[in-house]
Amino acid sequence: MQLAPSLSSLVQPAILSEVLQAVMSPAQLLIPLRSAPDKVVTRLEYEAYSKIALKAMSDIIREARDNHAQFSHRSGPSNTPSLLHCVVYHRLGTVPVGQPSIVIAVSSPHRKEAFSACEFILEEVKARAQIWKREYYEGERDEDAEWKSNTAS
């Protein structure tokens, strides 16, 4: 299994740019992100303790592989692992509203395992990786931006 957690700031691999372009929607960019009833988020900023965040993401990917090794809908023994490859990219620095902050890609011979693993990885990264998000609001000074906890939903 390919274990490839990554924290990216300004320079992103070409393949990540292609993936991001494929999932971007012009309509998505028109929807204002609201943090509270009276606040419109204008941009997000992410910081990380990179060494610990990368280790946590590597551990999470390993756990995803272990947790999804056997699914009940699979019949008979198989030498093919449920998850073939997992990649996690989390952006750092300023991220405009409407752009992805995290990209998770999983390949599997079975889509149920792939979707389940993606959800598991996302929630665990939010809960355990040392990555912090700051929200900036329309009409407010940058000094008033708020740090938000990265809790699983």
Per-chain topology:
Elements: E1 2-8, H1 14-23, H2 26-29, E2 33-36, E3 39-48, H3 50-67, E4 85-91, E5 93-96, E6 102-107, H4 111-128, E7 131-137, E8 146-148
Parallel strand pairs: 1-4
Antiparallel strand pairs: 2-3, 3-5, 3-7, 4-6, 7-8
Helix pairs in contact: 3-4
What brief labels describe this structure?
153 residues; elongated; Aldehyde Oxidoreductase, domain 3; single chain; 5-stranded antiparallel sheet
CATH level 1 name: Alpha Beta
Order of helices and strands: EHHEEHEEEHEE
Share of helix among residues? Answer: 25-40%
**Which stretches are poorly predicted, pLDDT < 50 over at least 5 residues?**
8-12, 27-32
The name of the CATH architecture is: Alpha-Beta Complex
Query: So what's the overall shape?
Result: elongated
Task: Walk me through what this model shows.
The protein has helices at residues 14-23, 26-29, 50-67, 111-128, and strands spanning 2-8, 33-36, 39-48, 85-91, 93-96, 102-107, 131-137, 146-148. It is an alpha+beta fold. It has one domain (2-22, 32-68, 82-148): Alpha-Beta Complex (Aldehyde Oxidoreductase, domain 3), CATH 3.90.1170.40. The strands form two sheets. Strands 2, 3, 5, 7 and 8 form a five-stranded antiparallel sheet that branches. It is elongated and about 55 Å long. The two termini are 27 Å apart.
Short description:
With 153 residues, this protein is an alpha+beta fold. It contains 4 helices and 8 strands; from the N terminus they run E-H-H-E-E-H-E-E-E-H-E-E.
